[in-house]
Amino acid sequence: MTGMRPAERRSTKKGGAADELGPNSEIGRKLKQYYDELVSDEVPDRIMDLLKQLEASEALKTDRTRDGK
Amino acid sequence: MSSSSFREELVATIPSLRAFAISLAQNNDRADDLVQETLVKAWDKQSSFQMGTNLKAWLFTILRNEFYSQMRKRGREVQDSDGLLTASVAIHPDQQGSVDLKDFRKALELLPEDQREAIVLIGASGFSYEEAAEICGCAIGTIKSRVSRARTRLQEILGIEGDGDYGPDAISAQVLGSTAA
Q1: Is residue B109 part of a domain?
Q2: What is the 3-state secondary structure of B81-140?
Q3: Are residues B103 and B135 in the same domain?
């Protein structure tokens, strides 16, 4: 869309997530900083280990099915 | 969805899922327990997951349900934002007016769960109001009002004057924000 005037732009931001928590909002910026820091944490081993276990148990199930047990 | 791409997407979502869990539980160990429970449930229900739908939202929904069901089991009343006293804590921004991340975290912890999850889902996890409403099992309008109350509350706690949404830089910031997003 071209030629959108600022006033229209302002009205379209209503309802979008950016309206209250956009880059111009201190709260919005802090919230993202807070969250991004958590996201960049290394995922603990116990979570990745669990995933491996889940896969292993599924592989086992598949094998059993194939063996007709 | 094939099993391997399901797994790939699952793995890719874990960091964000875990961040959401920490923001809900406010305790890393409990959050990791929640993520584990969620992964087990998601794995079991894998076949019921509708291909082409939003796996991330699905996982967040499972985790959130798990969180609230654990809270109920512990006999803890789910906080009702309307019944909560306005916390008046002395957190003040430094002289430059910028808020320390530690203070922000403290302020976030003071919010009732329903407001905290709403503002995190919308402002940080990248969900739309529609998706957040689905995750929380409530109306879109409810999410909007929770986000708005959360934001106001955080501003009060942190002593931030109303953000300059209508200031002279608002429009250029939006433009920059929309291209960056």
Answers
A1: yes
A2: HHHCCCCCCCCCCCCCCCCCHHHHHHHHHCCCHHHHHHHHHHHCCCCCHHHHHHHHCCCH
A3: yes
Across the range A29-33, mean pLDDT stands at 95
CA proximity to B152, closest of A16, A10, A25: A25
**Structural domain boundaries enclosing B131:** 89-163
Chain B residues in contact with A9 by the CB 8 A cut-off are: 171, 174
- Residue B127: CB partners within 8 Å, gap ≥ 6? A17, B57, B60, B121, B135
Q: B3 near B46, Cβ under 8 Å? A: yes
Same domain, B55 and B106: no
B65 and B120 belong to one structural domain: no
Domain count, chain B: 2
What CATH number is attached to the domain comprising B39? 1.10.1740.10
- The minimum CA-CA distance between B155 and chain A, rounded to whole Å, is 7
* B81 inside domain: no
Partners of A53 on chain B (C-beta within 8 Å) are none
Claim to verify: residue B64 and residue B5 sit in the same structural domain? yes
Q: What pLDDT is attached to residue A59?
A: 78
- Tell me if chain A has a CB within 8 Å of the CB of B162: no
Question: For B93-121, what is each residue's pLDDT tens digit?
Answer: 555 556 789 999 999 999 999 999 999 99
CA distance B94 to B104: 12
**Residue A7: which pLDDT band, with cuts at 50, 70 and 90?**
very low
